[in-house]
Every structure is written in C-alpha cells, then in structure tokens.
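Rotation project, supervised by the postdoc (A.L.). Task for the rotation student: set up a whole-complex structure prediction and record inputs and outputs verbatim in this book. Inputs entered:
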Amino acid sequence: MAKDKITSSSTAEYFSKNLQQVGFSSPTKAVLTTLKESVDNSLDACEEQGILPEISVQIEKLGVGTLKNTDLIRIKVEDNGPGLSLDDVPKVFGEYLASSKFGRGRCSRGQQGIGISAATTWAQLTSAKGVTVVTKTKTMRQPVQVQVAVDIKHNKGLLKEKKDGKLKGPHGLSVEFIIDGRIQLQGEGGLITYLTGTALVNPHLTLHYTLPEQKTITIPRVSNESPDVPNATEPHPHTMKLGEFIAHSHLFGRMALKAWLKKGFSRISDNSLAEFVKNGLDKKMLDLSVDKVSETQFKDIFSVIHKTELMSPSTKSVMTIGEASFSKSVRRLGEVDFFSVVTRRPSICDYKPVAVEVAVARLKGLSKGEGSDDGPVQVLRFANRVPLQFDKSACAMVKAIESVNWRSYGLQQPKDSLPLGPYVIAVSLVSPFIKFKNASKETIDASDELVEELRRTLIQAGQRLSRHIKKEHREQDLENKLRYIEQFCPILVDCLCRITQAPDKRKKKATEGLEKILGRDLTVAKKEFKEADLAAKEAAAKGKIQIIKDEETPEESPEENTPEVEVVEKKAKAKPKSAAKAKPAAKGKSKSSVSKEKSAS
Amino acid sequence: MRSDSIPKISKDLCNKMLADLENARRPILEAIKCSLDNSNYSPKVGYLTPGDKKVRTELNVSSVQKMSRAIFLLEVLLRNIDTGAVNTKRELYYIAKGEVKHDPHLKPLDFQDQSESDSVIDFICEMLECYREDLNCYANDRGGQTYSNQLVVTETLPDGTKAVVDLGSLGTSPFQPKNRPQSLQLKAKKKIDFCLVVESEGTANTFVANGFCKRNNSILIGAQGVPSNAVRGWAKLIQDQLKVPIFFFGDLDAYTIQNIYRTLKAGSAASLIRNSDFSAPDVHFLGVLPEDIKKYDLSDYPVKETDVSEARALKKAADALKNDPFFQDKRNKHLSKLLEWLLKNKRRCEQQAFFMVDPRDPTMPEKIIVEKIKKGIYL
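Outputs recorded:
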C-alpha cells in the first residue's frame, strides 16, 4: 500500500501550475496570449450574433513587474459584441473548460474554454488581481463593471467589486488585464504581427490599436458582410472511428438502420444505401432496428460505408474567408505589387473536414529580414482565422510551403526551404477540428494528408502567380537584350578591328552583321514576351489577372471584385476617373471565375 | 606554346571572328573544358590531361558581354606581350578598370570585382591553350621556399644575362622559385640524396634551423598548403633536371591527400592545360601514414564533421574516389585505400605530431623521416 494519500485536484489547479502549456511560457508570450484570447473571444461573440466587429486594443506599460525582467502591462480589449450576462461572466473568465463551443464541431476560434481563464489566472498570479470586465447586453440598462478571479481550488469564477461601468457602444464587452510580461512588437511573436494578421483574415473587422509609445492605428474593415458561422452538421461517416460510430447509434434509440443512417449522418442518401448493398451489405439488415444491431454487424456496416465513396462532408460546416474578401484584405498588408488568392473546396483530411485558403502577395519596400529581396518569404499562418506565431518550422503549413517547387513559378528557392523574395505567403486553415500539436494552439500537426491538401492549394496559388511573374521575367529579358545589343556591339567590333588592324569598311560590314545576328535573338525574345503578355492578357480577360493602374484604397474597390491575381501598379497621384474605368472591366468576369475555379477544384 | 606565337594566333582568331560577323554568322570561341569530367589520367603520363570536351561560346545576346570582355582583355594582354610588360591578375583588373575610366564607351565592360576579370583571363588561356605566364601575367605565387647546401640555380633573366644562386651560401634564408621554372637551370655541387617537400612552411623552417640540411644532402621545400604553380613547376624541374627522389611530408587527412598531394603529383582539373609542366609525378607520400600513428604512438583526433571546411573535405574526398581518374587508376590503389581509410575512420593526424615522439629531442622528426626514406616506408 502506498503511504501517501491519493488526492484529486481541480482543473483550475492543474492549469494554474501548467500555464506554460497554454501559451504562458514566457513574459513575451504571456502578453501575446492574453491579447489573443481576448480578441478571439470578441470576434467569436460578434460573429455568433452577426455583428460587424469593431475592436479597440490598448496596451501600455504601467511600471516594473513583480517577476524578474518583466514590466507591469495593462491590456485592454473592448468590443461592440452582444456582451455577457452577469451570470455568464464568472464562467467565461474564471472557470476552466466552461465553453459554449466545446465539441460542437463549429469553426469558432475558441473551442475548449481554457484560454481566457488561463489569462485571468496569469493576471491573478502575477498582479494579484483577476480581470476587470465591463459588460452590457441589449437588455441591461447600463454597463456593469466587475472583477473576476479564479477560485483555483474549486475551478469557479468569483465576482468582486461590482459597480457601474462605462462602454463606448450600446452593447459590448471590455476586458482589462494587468499582468507581468514583456512587450515585443515586431517579428514572429510580435503584437503588431498578430494584430495585422488578425485583420488580414477577418476582412469584416475594424481594429483600433494603441501600443506603447505609438499613436492609435485604425485598420478599417474591407467587407461589410459578417461571416455566417455555419451550424454544425451531422457527422460524416468517413470522419468517424468504429467506437464513435456505435456510440452515435445510442443517441437515436429505436429506429430502422436505414433511417438512422440517413438521419444521423450527412451525405447518406437512398442512393448511398443502394451503393452499400452493392458493396456487400445485407439488404435485410437495413430494416433492422438500430438497438438490435450486434457489434459484429456494426463492424460490417462500418467497413462497407468506408469502402463506399460518399460525397465529401458538407461544406456548410466549414466556413472560409472567401476569395473576394481575402483579396481585399491582402491589400491591407502593405504596398502590394500583385497577389493571388485561392480558396479550395473543403475536403476530408484525417477524417475531418478542412478548408484551405492561400494568398501569395509580393510586397514593396522591405529591405532586410523575412520578406526582403534576399531573405525568405514572410509566412503568415492562420488556424480558424487566428494567427499562429510560434514554432513555425514544425507546422504543417511551413512543411507544405517548403515541399512546393516555387522555382517553377519564378521564385528563388533553396532546396527544401522556404522560397526567397519580397513575398508574403498567408495560409489559412479552417476546420471544426484542427489537430494542434499543443494546448496553446501554436502549431498544426503535419499529417501527410493535411500537408498534401495545403500543398495543392499553394501550388494553385503559385500557378496563378507565375503567369504574371513569367511575363515580368520575359519583359526584363527583352530589356536586357536590347540594352546588351546597344552596349556591346560597338565595343566588340572596335576591339576586333583594332587587334586585326582592319579597315573601316570591314568594321562597318561587321557591325551590320552583328546587328543582324543579335536582331534575330531579339526577335525570339520579343516573341517570347508577346506570348507571355498574351497569356497574362487572356488570364485578365477571364478575370484571373486584374491590373489596377492608379492608387486605390481597399474601400474603393468594388465588393464583387474577386481577382485571382491582382496587379497593383501604384502611381504618385490617384485618378479616380481612370480607376473607375479600370474596375468595371473585371467586375462581371471575376465573379464567374471564382465559381469556375471552385467547380474545377 | 611560346609567347611569340600568341600574337599571331590571337590575330588569326580575331580575323576569323570578324569575317564571321561580316557574313552575319555567329562567331564561336572554343576552349578546353577544364573540369574533372574532362580529365584523363594515365600512369605512363603521370598527370591529369584534358579530354576532348570543349566549352563553346557562340555569340548571342547572352554571351555578347563575355565575348566582348574576352576580346577587350586579350587586346590588353597582347599589348603587354608587345611591350614586354608583365602584370599580376590583380594589376590587370585595375588596368581594365583604368581603360573603362578613360573611355566611357567601355563602361558596360567594367568588372565589379577581380574574380570576374580572373575568369576572363583563364578563359583566354584555355582558348589559346597557353599558360597565363605566356601572356605575361604572373600570379603572386606563395610557397616553395627552398633550402639546400648542395643546390646551385642559374637563372636566365629576360635580358639574356644569367644569375647564379648557390643555395648553400644563403644560410637559413630560403631560395624562392618563380612561377616560370623554364628559365632556371639546376646543378648539384655534390650528390643530392633526396628532396623533401613539407606541407607546413613553418615546420620546414624548423628543420633547417635544427640543421637538417647540414646533416642530409638534400633539398628541403616548404609547400605552404596547396602547392601553387611555382611550387609545382619547381618540383617538376627538380625531378626532371636532378633526377632525385622526391618525398612529400604532410598531415594525414583527406584534404592533404586529395587536394595538396594529388595536385603536387598529378596537377589539378582546373589547370589541365598546364599540368605537364606543373606537376611532379614521381613524388612519393612519405607520411604521416596510418601505420606511423601506431608505430610512434602519435596523437590523432577525430574529424569534426560539424566543421564546415572539414565536412567539405570529406565530401570532396568521397567524390574524388568516385570521379577522380587519378584515384581510380589501379596504380594509385594504395592512395585510394588511404583515402577510404580516412573516410571510414574519420580521424586525422598532423605532421607536427612527430615532435611528440621524443619531446626533448628537436631532431626526432628528422630522424624518423630519414629512417622512413632509408627503409622505404612511404607510398
């Protein structure tokens, strides 16, 4: 017998001792994770209610932190969401695993209900204060301010200091954490990287942020459509394991097997049932009551279902940003030269529905580091529209990027590495069940199926991009050749004539001959450029390339404009008239190109 | 090739190019391909010789820059031959830059760094199948410091006069051979028993200071790493004119065997056209040998594969076993086996390790070397 008593501890107790597992492994990460959890919750809440989110973020240093080498940081996030009732506030902010989304199979950012409670715990542990929440729902008369702490022993949220609060809008929620941490603005784990990344994959978001010693920056929304968060659909049989399949049957009680299959699963129709029979299922079994089916029979049914090809899982359960909105959002990244955007039709990877979206953009103006001319491209990773900022190398998305041969699309790339150049590759993965490598959701597990799906999307984006890059290369080639002929012809002939002491007559004839020879090369180069130009123009005619000649702000671009490759030729002054002229040409066609692309993929 | 034939060959070549241009035909420049895949080795010849492969540069928009630069530098080199002026590669780089500076029309030819003009000079040599020295271009060659009490060198100077240098009269100062060994005549005052080429110039200097040349009728040369043209040409001259056995003493590692010793013995792939005069096929590898480590209990140590240069040396050695005709030849099986041993065991032993055999006797390495030569313990 063991001498020590076996005791059980609460979930809160476990996480309070293992906060590093949920994103609080360093002071820098603590600030980012707290911000991230607050913004994620705000976005989820707004989308649930169909509200266009407007979020304000304020981060400031208040002094020196209690932990070594840390500052005391105040993080305040305010949204215009539906607000929380006072009953829900302690559950959301002070109780672990209390979530409205756990296991529901929806593509929300938060899933388990751990993150924001962990942030409260961190605040409590480092500054002895929980989180200050101000909330107002539509039914509340005025905003209420409370302080929430985590009762670590019992995994419960505790409300303190209830009083009247202030909010900007008619409804919404504001959270304020005072924590020990360190602020990193730029780079992979930087706050600015997080905020701009969040804006990129949430085109409907208006974001105001104030960071220490900086002016308030506003990133306005580029889409006025709040994404419909799809309801969870019935499970797809191919996404289940045998145990889950049998357990699922218990939810339906007495019911004929065929009725259960049709009602309890998505993508099973009468035709599918006929296919099952063709593939060896006993027809009589379909009329059996589900509660009478033995385990062996379940096994047979399950294997027949897996042998039979079914329609892919419902696309309704997987939401995407969409090529149109993503295209507009990409232009908020900075001075974009041109870009391509691909949204692939959802498919099954590792028994789960996933949708991948990729944007590849060439930027101007980066001189060193990631995304500069010589450095590796900047990779932005998103899972359910949340930026992933750490442990890049182990992530499925980076592995997929490295596996693509970008050289064939005109980019430089060392072997098995990220391509080089002033590009941003943004990869967004949306799925109700994303397989993360850890609880802090920093890296996506690189399964072969998922990497392949990501790779295909990247290839599609690269192919679209290459049309424009090839045209550029040909253009450059032609320019070089013209320059070379002009520069070197006279030098070569002069040198030869001096060495041979040839008379002027020979010199003249040789110059003419040389011009003829190089002229032939030039004709070939011109032809190649013409072909590349034609291909680019054809693509433009199909809506695959759009050339915008004047300065254009994202808001000015038409809503329905959905180019696959956009070429932004920015000039000094905006000329609204010509911009207006340029736009309608692509309007009608671009929409059809998206639908064509979707059906093709 | 003699220097005086170069202007004629160059003029003919340029005339042909000009005629091609007059007829709107693309001129083609051909040069021997100087690379391992175009190297042949025969033990009868003793050094790497070029195969049939040629690098053809046809005039087109992409090659017009290279061709223009080649003809431009050829003109500079022909002028040097005409006036008898000599230059180093570095000086030629600046001469080319000076020409560009004084004639703005030549600006497109401007070289951004010396490596660009160097490669054009090498291309001209390969095209004309001549030595760089034939074009009056001399490298600032290092290494080859030579000590001997028996050797007398007679040098024919450009003006035809002769200079006689008795190496025995130089004390501990070395004689430095130039990279045009053809102008030197060697004579032995007394019978010379052997010539020893030591990889480390510092160790060669130590040997002399400790009286190596007083006790041994020998020629002692410090190679200073990979032998330069001067060292290679000098060793060839000693081999041919004095007919004394030559031994190489260096580290036991892949780089020394595959790069330093192979270059001294059989030349290199990069200088295929000059190996006949710049390699000494009779040179033997005296050590350090793997058996020396056991016999003298020398301190050896593992190769650091994490070190970029050492990892590269191992990779190059593995490539040499597969692709280098020198190591593939049956007669050099003992050397390829040594390379295999080094690749397998991944250990190295430095030449200076001989000083640990008897740390109180500074002449111990000399004693071991002389014993090895007498007993024939070398490859």
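Student's summary: The two ends of chain A are 63 Å apart (CA to CA).
Supervisor addendum: Residues 195 and 419 of chain A are 25 Å apart (CA to CA).
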